[in-house]
Amino acid sequence: MISKSPHIVVVGAGIVGASLAYHLVRKNARVTLIDKAPNSASGATEKSFAWITVTHDAPETYISLRQQAIADWHRVEDELKGQLNVDWSGALTWREDPAETVRMAGKLINSGYQVHLVDQQQIRLLEPNLKIVPAQAILAENEGAIDARLTTELLITAARQAGADCQLGNEVLSLMTNGSRITGVITANGKITADTVVLAAGVNTTTLCQPLDVTLPINISPAILIAFHTPHQFVNRIISNPFMDIRAASATLTLSAAEYTDESIENNPQAIAQRSLEQLKAHWQGAGQINVTNVMIGKRPIPQDGLPIIGRTPHIEGLYVSVMHAGVTLAAVAGRLAAGEILSDQDDFLLSSYRPSRFN
């Protein structure tokens, strides 16, 4: 075990870094959270659709981790004593090919995840404003969504109140080393020594690791988040269908997620937002008076194999990495498990498939 009250520097104040700081300080570590942006959650976090969900297109071990992630968000809700309100309204998912919908449901059910298929009549009851109703859909009643920026701020506030030093607007320029050991960070405001440095800097993690000859194949995957103003709420839960992912963030705010294509006239973010608006009007009653209020592009960090990268780096002491897509879904569980590993020097089996060493 490292020193009794170790000093941990967490680089990155998105939702993953905020969760790490929160969980570390709750375990009595001395924590310094650093981000070059003056505000937390200013990167991929605030541009996230923020759906807490279990994916079907993944190994069973990853499905299991994401099931645990849902339970951990319930735990964090309890710990924050009513300050965090997750919208646990559930999710409906279907694909254009009904057989694919059935296949997805079967894989999730076989993995122990509590979902079930619902028919057209049930879908109409669940979403009465839906104009074009599929033959079947997957209902995941235990899924939800959060305000990712607000949640990040709540975690950082809780970490601060427990004693964490949060330095926003202070850029980490490089990592300090002594032989093969990381000893701290060099920031725009000076040096900070640490027992362990945790990199939760998303797409910037590879830049900080490059001088160490640590291989972290992380792709930058842009995604679009579209905000619509609505006179009233017309969708009851998260909907993922062949046309879009949508959810009501409030009675007057609906969010939609879309893949970034390019900057051409036909496919730039504004054009995609306009097509999404037309799709909403075509598929939903009550969507006739909505309008686009904001279009944001988030640069998602997606590891090459699509799975999280969490753990100590091989041959480099004092460095821990936590990078993943689905950062919102995984933030609570990753924060808890990683904090336990960092402060005990013991490995958690739930994270064993996601080590940085798999790329070396």
TrEMBL record:
The keyword Oxidoreductase applies. Gene3D superfamilies: D-Amino Acid Oxidase, subunit A, domain 2, FAD/NAD(P)-binding domain. The keyword Oxidoreductase applies. It comes from the Bacteria. It holds the Pfam family DAO. Residues 8-339 form the FAD dependent oxidoreductase domain. Keywords: Oxidoreductase. InterPro entries: FAD-dep_OxRdtase, FAD/NAD-bd_sf. Its EC number is 1.-.-.-. One of its GO terms (molecular function) is oxidoreductase activity. PANTHER family: GLYCINE OXIDASE, SARCOSINE DEHYDROGENASE-RELATED. This is NAD(P)/FAD-dependent oxidoreductase. It comes from Spirosoma flavum. The lineage of its organism: Bacteria, Pseudomonadati, Bacteroidota, Cytophagia, Cytophagales.
